[in-house]
Every structure is written in C-alpha cells, then in structure tokens.
Amino acid sequence: MVLAIGGLLLAVTPPLITAALPGIELKAAARRTAGSLRLAREIAVAEGRDASWVLDIEQHRYRIQGDHRGGSLPGGLDLELVAAEQEMQSEGVGAIRFYPDGSSTGGRVILKRGDAGYQVGVNWLTGRILIAEWEG
Fold first, then answer.
1. Domain presence at residue 76
2. CA distances from 19 to 11, 15, 74 (A)
3. How far apart are CA 100 and CA 48, in angstroms?
4. Range of the domain at 84
5. 123 and 106 in contact (C-beta within 8 Å)?
6. Are 46 and 98 in contact (CB under 8 A)?
7. Fewer beta carbons within 10 angstroms: which end of the chain, N or C?
8. C-alpha span between 107 and 115 (Å, rounded)
C-alpha cells in the first residue's frame, strides 16, 4: 500500500512542479530587476554621482551605465519600460536615472507573461523601489 501511494505521488508531483515554474521564474525576474535598480540607487548615493539603470527590451538585458554590473531576464517574458522621455535612447532601450540625493527620474518595468505579471516601480521623489502584481 505504501509503495502504491508513493508511486502515485511520484506520478502526480512533476506536472504540478512544472506548472508552477513559470510563475516562480516571473517573480524571480521581478526581484532581480528590483535588486539591480536598488543597486543603481546605492551607487548613486554612495559615489555621489548619477547612476543610470539601462534596459534593452529586445535583448532582455539590463546594466548599470558606467559600471560592469548587469544581467539578463528570461527570454519568454514580455517586457515594458515606462520611463522619462529624455531617458529613452531608442524605442527598445531606455533608462531610469538615480541622483546622488536618492531621487530618480522615476518609472516602472513591467514583466509579464500573458495577462499576469509584476511591475517594478521607482518613485521619482524618493527613489523607492517597489514590486506589485500586474494584470493586463
């Protein structure tokens, strides 16, 4: 009886884990985005200079301008950047700039798959970075 129950659990568990992975990947990408934005803000404050967090939507890559740090986001996600017009370098590349006082140009990054996802927002006045759920 124990072996039958164990076999049943082994048969049922992998599909459940596979179904949960896209949501886990999406949340991890949102957390990674927020972490890199926080790092850019910390660099601006600690070094007393502007620090821009740059996102290339088509390549799914981000970097901190003038710094060697950067990363990538999963390819299966749809990305959207809402940023100040002067920070948009092209239609697919834009930035959120942080200032030495901790403030920023503000903006948000939307990471989605279908009609669900997360938005990582940056408050322009305080530079505070928050993650919230997003629905289409």
1. yes
2. 14, 6, 17
3. 5
4. 22-135
5. yes
6. no
7. N
8. 21
Q: Is residue 111 part of a domain?
A: yes
Q: State how far Cα 111 lies from the chain centre.
A: 7
| Residue 58 is assigned to a structural domain of this protein | yes
Domain count, the chain: 1
Structure tokens belonging to residue 3 = 């072996």
Looking up tokens 């996102």, which residue turns up? 55
33: CATH: 3.55.40.10
Residue 96: inside a domain, yes or no?
yes
Question: Hey, what are 113's tokens?
Answer: 């798959």
